Automatic annotation (TrEMBL):
It is a single-pass membrane protein. This is Cyclic di-GMP-binding protein. PANTHER family: CYCLIC DI-GMP-BINDING PROTEIN. The chain crosses the membrane at residues 767-786. Pathway: Glycan metabolism; bacterial cellulose biosynthesis. Binds the cellulose synthase activator, bis-(3'-5') cyclic diguanylic acid (c-di-GMP). It comes from Orrella marina. Keywords: c-di-GMP, Cell inner membrane, Cell membrane, Cellulose biosynthesis, Membrane, Transmembrane, Transmembrane helix. Belongs to the AcsB/BcsB family. It comes from the Bacteria.
């Protein structure tokens, strides 16, 4: 009986009962809804406020029982799914940022091009996506053609090429398998193209596809915890795999003296040298606060009374950032400011030798000052330099018909004096695969994308002396040695020589053409370029040289002849601008500023044995003693600028003799405004003739961020520092004046005489001609004297 009762309780209700209950509930819902009361709503306790229910007759006439949907009762409606959560990528790069200067042009039956990118050591790729903008030829056969996307030479995706979308600009998002990514990666695009089912020309003009270099690669990454280990330095504070601008806070825990500021500048210049082309932006935390996220450098003087770690000497240590478990803090510590400097010196000169979580420096020798123009990044100017010293040997090769060019970067001292000088001698040695038949192959040499010279790559039939071919081993390349010259004007402080092997494809005829990509070209590492014949001389001030290379301060790579003067006390913006400038100097020289000098306040203006950089913002009354020597002055809302005809010039080309286009200050403009603006001005030191001063100033402390943008540059910032005075607005740089008042370097007697004469007689002949005319006149004079003496003797 009990069992029967339980079974009746579990038995499902009849369908008619379910339908009746559903109808009653729907009618009740409509009735209550019409009175303004919803299920779950609490009624007002005041009866007078309760809604009046309709009468039974009214309900019968105004409310109809809705028709029942039996199917909806039998099968419940599915719950709508939520859209997937969109996770913003951690990194997004355009192909242009990854090194693709131009759109990819894929040609032929198997054309390809690629970009390279890296993943930081403390990151793991979890998702990757390419936002691709591309187009392809209408002649491609859709069934037999496609575009492959390869990651590290493994096919990740194949893009179809339907005929109805051909010839148009298309856009496609492609997810790439995350497991294909490593620390060093190659993203390659390969066109497999066919235009006919019969015999086809493998390099036919209709076989093409184009991929925009504005396409983007997006990466989602997970952070990989790294141990607190000094042997991994400079990781994670700088990782060479990361192509972005380095952004690194420097925290001043409890000491902001001149010596500690010198230590911070030394460290900033070291990281700037490591960052190189990426650029480095530093932010100063003078309040001792750690960043909320990421890594930072902390300079601290040990103080046991403040519950800080006690140290027994110059100390370096690495710990986790208490505000961010994935960030690290690099501690540079000492019992006093001098020991902090010693720890900083140990870091920038011996980081590769450090190990463990913390080290205490027991001994470090003083580094000898460097010699002028010996910066590691700069090309030697005292002897011929081999190409193998400037570029890795494996990068001197060009492979195949569509092989990329050989590019060689040159960083030169900006004061190489090329006025009325011969071109830079280049002893170019190269090898190439000799092709059969008659070809139009050539080696094209360019400087900064400007054509210089073309050398024919002679084929076997074109060679007059075939004895060389008989001496070559099978598969060897034919050696060539040629002499050429490069105008020094084309090789600015940061230049690029490009060597492109253009091999002509030999067509055999219908149904006989096949690509055998066995041609090779190679620039010999023993090739040389010689700058030793040029003196070091430059008219100053020159803000272009300062902005590009930090010259004349970087003439000595350790900055031993440089003093930076800051207000006393400096603001955090002043120190941030100072650190970013030191990073810029380090990027130019490739060496840390181990002998940098920092002074605070007006007393620093009395330095006479160094070139000076003044960084100031806000109240600048401490500079009033030099105001008559400055072409501009910013003091709060009061602003004074010197302007010239440079504002009206549309071309900023500077000839070898810059004096011919200088624009001295014509008038002063003074006004009051609360707007943010910054200036960079160069002039000769009032207390030490021949010494340089560059003033970096802003009316407001936050305005110095504009100077940082001008130093780092970028697509969103127009203009460059030029002349002797420039004003910096949020959108770019505007040169105001260009006036040369002194110079650096020395010219020989004859060259110096010619330089001086041309200043007053612009059409004067070269000193070679002047010397020849002088010698000719001297010879005529001697002949005349000899004749007179001869006649006198004969007459006597």
């Amino acid at each position: 009986m009990k069992t029967a009762f339980l079974s009746s309780k579990l038995r499902p209700a009849p369908a008619t009962a379910v339908f009746a209950f559903a109808a009653i509930m729907q009618v009740a819902a409509l009735t209550l809804g019409s009175t303004g009361v919803a299920f779950g709503q609490q009624l007002n306790p005041d009866p007078s406020a309760w809604p009046t229910l309709p009468s039974a007759s009214a309900s019968a006439t105004s409310v109809e029982a809705p028709a029942l949907n039996l199917k909806s009762l039998e099968t419940p409606s599915p719950i709508p799914s939520r859209p997937p959560k969109v996770v913003e990528p951690n990194h997004r790069y355009t192909f242009e940022e990854l090194g693709a200067r131009y759109p990819f042009s894929l040609r032929g039956i198997d054309g390809s091009d690629s970009v390279f990118f890296n993943v930081r050591a403390d990151e793991l790729v979890t998702r990757a996506e390419v936002d691709l903008t591309y187009s392809y030829s209408p002649a491609l056969l859709s069934e037999y053609s496609h575009i492959n996307v390869l990651v590290n030479d493994e096919i990740a995706f194949s893009i179809p090429v339907p005929r109805d979308e051909a010839g148009r600009t298309l856009r496609r998002n492609i997810n790439l398998p995350a497991h294909l990514f490593t620390e060093f990666n190659q993203l390659r695009f390969q066109l497999i193209g066919h235009y006919t089912l019969e015999c086809e020309d493998p390099l036919h003009s209709s076989l093409w596809a184009s991929i925009s270099n504005k396409s983007t690669l997006s990466l989602n990454v997970d952070h990989i915890p790294l141990p607190n280990e000094l042997s991994k330095l400079p990781v994670p504070f700088f990782d060479q795999r990361d192509s972005r601008t380095l952004q690194l806070p420097i925290v001043f825990a409890n000491d902001r003296t001149e010596t500690t500021l010198e230590s911070a500048g030394m460290i900033a210049s070291w990281f700037g040298a490591l960052a190189s082309y990426r650029g480095a932006l530093f932010s100063a935390h003078l309040d001792g606060s750690y960043p909320a996220k990421g890594n930072a450098i902390v300079l601290m003087k040990s103080d046991t009374s403040a519950s800080l770690p006690a140290v027994s000497g110059p100390t370096l240590a690495i710990t986790a950032n208490p505000n961010d478990s994935s960030g690290k803090l690099l501690w540079v510590m000492g019992r006093n400011a001098q020991e902090i400097r010693q720890a900083a010196q140990a870091l920038v000169t011996g980081a590769a030798t450090l190990t463990g979580q913390a080290v205490t420096i027991s001994q470090i020798d003083q580094i000898d000052p460097r010699q002028p123009y010996d910066a590691p990044n700069w090309v030697r100017t005292d002897r011929p330099v081999r190409f193998g010293e400037l570029i890795p040997e494996q990068n001197l090769n060009s492979i195949g018909y569509q092989g990329g060019p050989v590019r060689m970067d040159l960083r030169l001292p900006p004061d190489l004096f090329g006025w009325r000088a011969h071109p830079v001698p280049v002893d170019l040695r190269y090898r190439y695969t000799v092709q059969p038949g008659t070809t139009d192959s050539a080696l094209i040499v360019s400087a900064n994308e400007q054509f210089l010279r073309s050398f024919s790559l002679e084929s076997a039939e074109e060679m007059k002396d075939e004895s060389w071919l008989k001496k070559l081993d099978p598969g060897s390349m034919f050696p060539v040695d040629v002499k050429m010259g490069v105008p020094l004007d084309l090789l600015k402080s940061q230049s690029e020589l490009e060597f492109r092997f253009m091999f002509d494809y030999i067509k055999e005829g219908a149904c006989r053409d096949i690509i055998i990509d066995n041609v090779r070209g190679r620039i010999d590492p023993d090739s040389t370029i010689d700058f030793s014949g040029y003196p070091h001389f430059m008219p100053l001030p020159n803000l272009e040289a300062f902005g590009r290379t930090g010259f004349p301060y970087t003439r000595l790579a350790d900055l031993s002849q440089t003093a930076v003067i800051l207000a006393s006390p400096p603001s955090s913006e002043d120190v941030s601008a100072y650190l970013t400038l030191m990073g810029r100097f380090g990027a130019s020289t490739g060496y840390p500023g181990t002998h940098l000098t920092v002074r605070l306040g007006q007393s620093g203006l009395e330095v006479t044995d160094k070139d000076i950089v003044i960084i100031s913002s806000g109240d600048q009354r401490w500079l009033e003693g030099w105001s008559e020597h400055m072409p501009a002055m910013l003091a709060g809302e009061r602003k004074r600028f010197g302007t010239s005809d440079l504002l009206f010039r549309s071309v900023d080309w500077i000839p070898p003799d810059p004096r011919t286009v200088q624009s001295p200050v014509r008038n002063d403009l003074v006004y009051d405004s609360a707007g943010e603006v910054a200036i960079v001005a160069g002039f000769e030191s009032p207390v030490a003739p021949g010494r340089s001063v560059v003033l970096i100033a802003s009316s407001q402390p936050q305005g110095l961020a504009l100077v940082n943008k001008a130093l780092l540059g970028g697509d969103d910032f127009s203009g460059n520092l030029m002349g002797s005075l420039a004003v910096i607005h949020p959108n770019g740089v505007t040169p105001l004046a260009s006036q040369y008042s002194y110079s650096i370097g020395e010219l020989g007697f004859w060259r110096g005489l010619e330089w001086t004469i041309v200043q007053y007689w612009p059409g004067a002949l070269s000193y070679w001609w002047v010397g020849a005319i002088f010698l000719a006149l001297l010879l005529l004079f001697l002949i005349s004297v000899y004749r007179r003496l001869f006649r006198r003797r004969k007459g006597s």
